[in-house]
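To: structure subgroup
Subject: Chain for Friday's discussion

All,

I'm putting the inputs and outputs inline so they're searchable in the archive.
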Amino acid sequence: MEPMGNNIDVHLGKRLRRRRRLLGLTQQQLAGACGVRFQQIQKYECGANRISAARLWQLSEALEVPVGYFYDGFAEAAQRETSGEGEGGGEMFARKETLDLIRAYYQLGERPRRRLLDLAKSLNGDHPVA
């Protein structure tokens, strides 16, 4: 098993990449907002470099999320890893198709979003449409 510190670095990097992509930012754009080179963002995203507390604050400001966002799901991921369950559905959110769908969904107004959600659920058979 990997040391706990490395697991945290990888988790933070995945969350960083997910949010950056969700906002449609390039590594270069995010790097510019934080005053670092894009290569540094690459290293953060793959967990090769540890993100300092000050840099995490800058990233949270640039990505418009609270610092806690980066730690969301870490305890559950660590638990799955120690129990041998693996990563599972986390990879689904890393796919470009998923991110494109999420972006398009949040560009809709509230009522069309609700209708789209109801449609998706009805296609899956999980939820009767009212």
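Points worth raising on Friday:
DSSP finds seven helices and no strands in the chain.
The chain has a mean pLDDT of 83.

D.
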